[in-house]
Amino acid sequence: MKLFVIILMALLFCPASGYGTMADETKYSHIIENDVISIGGTYRLRGEIDDEFNVKKYGTGTQDDFLLSRLRFEIDLKVTKNLKIHTQIQDAEVLGSRLSDKDFSGSNNPFHDPFDINQLYIEYWPVEQFGIKAGRQAISFGDRRIFGPGDWGNTGRYAWDAVRVLYKSDSIDSNLITGRYIIHDPDIWPNEQINGVTALATYNTIKNLPFQLDLFYVLKYDDRGITKGEKANGDLSSHYAGFRIDGKSGQWNYDTTIVKEFGKWATDTIDAYGVVFTLGYTFDTKWKPHLILQYVIGSGDKDPNDGKHGTFDGVFGGADTVLYGWMNLFFFQNLREHRLDLVLTPGETITLRGEYHYFMLDQAKDAWYFPGNAQRRDKTGSSGRELGHEVDLVVKKKISEYLEILGGYSFFIPGEFVKNTGPSPTAQWYFLQTTVFF
């Protein structure tokens, strides 16, 4: 009955004929667009049912059903040929959730942040190949595992107060970045940047190869002295160096990301890494079946008392949708993920997607991590490593150039580790979303 109510409400809010966008919300037609000013945006409404979990906890013993709405209103003002000012106002609202603003006090609120400045930056290109982007902005590269805005969340996981130097040529696209991300807080306007955590990064894409090659380095620094080490608190100085290869050959596609993390985690020495291997094949038949195999490792800490921090922390990556399962029960930390996806395209306007995930802990003595928090831990390692199985079924339908509907159902079956460390129900998730472009 609750699912029916959510579906009905979502459809009532969905215009019979209107405006829309694709799910990634990157390109759309504005209501006003000329050589000087561009005005437009998106409106997204999503109904969800979370059964036996929420964004903070698994095994809740309850079911939560709610509506999320997000309006993004954008203005681009072209001051001169080489100078642009971009503004994005975001209104994120929630109706009916068991979780309130108090449950996210002192941290990023993923549901609620009314009419705030989500982006406001100046972009200037003094010469054709060299540019500067300064101010509040979204930063995203590649598959969003290193830098990702986390836009599936109602408020977004990351928005940055940053300075970004850009260089573009026929052979390379290069970015040099320094900044701090903001905290979405409904009680503060405008949202403030996090105190202490500073990023310095370079992300580069090499062109004219048989594949796309990304090379990156990131420094994450926090001098507040609150980073929790194994024996004492202290500062964080974490370095990440790695690469990503993304290519296609005939009907095959492949994608590999490897990143090494090193430095100091309070008084501990960091020795961690993240690895992603992806191989896909598209069949030349009806519905163009695309089969994808993937293996993900986010390293864990094998010994909680050896003075070495082995848990990879995911850099500044997103946790959206296809990355680690649509239910967001897992993140790129102490994780081994084996998965099989099948994507079908019955027509130009509809896509069907099915995913099977088998999740394990990388190290038995480390924790099971949600995006942003540790869920459960057995420091003895005696509870096993098997987290469980997740199945995701998603359909995307483009109604018109301006309107898209996305819906899905997921369930999680717990494994040995979950059963040995607390409540272990089967969790289910339903959602229906409409997105409107204007």
Layout of secondary structure:
Elements lengths: L1 H12 L18 E2 L3 E17 L4 E23 L2 E13 L17 E12 L5 E8 L22 E9 L3 E10 L15 E10 L5 E17 L4 E17 L2 E14 L2 E15 L7 E9 L9 E2 L25 E13 L2 E12 L5 E4 L2 E5 L8 E15 L2 E12 L1 H5 L6 E11 L1
Parallel strand pairs: 13-15
Antiparallel strand pairs: 1-2, 2-3, 2-22, 3-4, 4-5, 5-6, 6-7, 7-8, 8-9, 9-10, 10-11, 11-12, 12-13, 13-14, 14-16, 16-17, 17-20, 18-19, 20-21, 21-22
Q: Quote the distance from N terminus to C terminus.
A: 33 Å
Low-pLDDT sequence parts: 3-26
Considering DSSP H and I runs of 4 or more, what fraction of the residues is helical? under 10%
Helix segment count?
2
Order of helices and strands: HEEEEEEEEEEEEEEEEEEEEEHE
Rg computed from alpha carbons, rounded to a whole number of angstroms: 22 Å
Largest sheet geometry: 18 strands, antiparallel, barrel
Strand segment tally: 22
Counted up, domains total: 1
What is the CATH C-level name?
Mainly Beta
Under the CATH scheme, the architecture is: Beta Barrel
Average pLDDT? 93
Tell me what portion of residues adopts beta-strand conformation.
over 45%
Query: What is the CATH topology?
Result: Porin
What does this structure look like?
This protein has one domain (2-437): Beta Barrel (Porin). Strand 13 (268-282) and strand 14 form a beta hairpin. It has helices at 2-13, 416-420, and strands at residues 32-33, 37-53, 58-80, 83-95, 113-124, 130-137, 160-168, 172-181, 197-206, 212-228, 233-249, 252-265, 268-282, 290-298, 308-309, 335-347, 350-361, 367-370, 373-377, 386-400, 403-414, 427-437. With 438 residues, the chain is mainly beta. Helices cover 4% and strands 57% of the residues.
